[in-house]
Design brief:
Blueprint (H helix, E strand, L loop, with lengths): L4 E2 L3 E5 L5 H8 L2 H6 L8 H13 L3 E8 L5 E9 L6 E7 L8 H14 L6 E6 L4 H9 L3 E8 L2 E9 L2
Antiparallel strand pairs: 1-2, 2-3, 3-4, 4-5, 6-8, 7-8
Helix pairs in contact: 1-3
């Protein structure tokens, strides 16, 4: 899959070791902790270790999202193969101050379209907590349909799927 994407307003580039401050901020945001989970990123060293773990993973891709012409990251798009899912999972998270502007849709859509073009990904899933109404609305706008609920560790997740046309 592409390593870089460009939309009308956004640039997406792979996560790198230089994204420590952003990862620290995003993973400690209220929304991340509530809807994705506390990853115990309490120091910049923890953020560095998290990035190293992501970068060393074989079945995981993270793209940092930036507004064109600006250096500061605003969000993250993920694409990974989770052990408990049959298909690859598309995810997204944005800093709260960049919400409600269509950025998550714009960035997710470009990655989703690229992934669905690959033979290896005729079906893509997305997971969310059932009470994460903003994520559910975005998934539905992207063309995902509710498939099922699944218990994963202590959480009951809603699983959404989409397929190549």
């Amino acid at each position: 899959m592409n390593t870089h994407f460009e939309t009308e307003r956004l640039l997406l580039s792979p996560l790198t070791e230089t994204d420590t401050l952003f990862i620290y901020e995003l993973l400690n945001s209220k929304a991340w902790i509530r809807f994705i989970g506390d990853r115990d990123i309490n120091t910049f060293e923890d953020a560095d270790a998290y990035i190293d773990k992501i970068l060393s993973g074989r079945n995981i891709q993270y793209w940092i999202v930036r507004e064109k012409g600006k250096d500061k990251p605003i969000g993250l798009i993920t694409f990974m193969k989770r052990a408990y899912l049959d298909h690859w999972d598309l995810g997204f998270a944005f800093l709260e101050k960049h919400g409600k502007k269509g950025y998550a849709f714009e960035a997710s859509e470009v990655v989703l379209k690229a992934a669905l073009q690959l033979k290896a990904h005729p079906t893509i899933v997305a997971t969310t907590l059932p009470d994460n109404s903003n994520s559910i609305k975005l998934l539905e706008k992207l063309g995902f349909k509710f498939d099922k609920k699944m218990k994963v560790e202590k959480d009951m997740l809603s699983i959404y799927t989409t397929q190549k046309d």
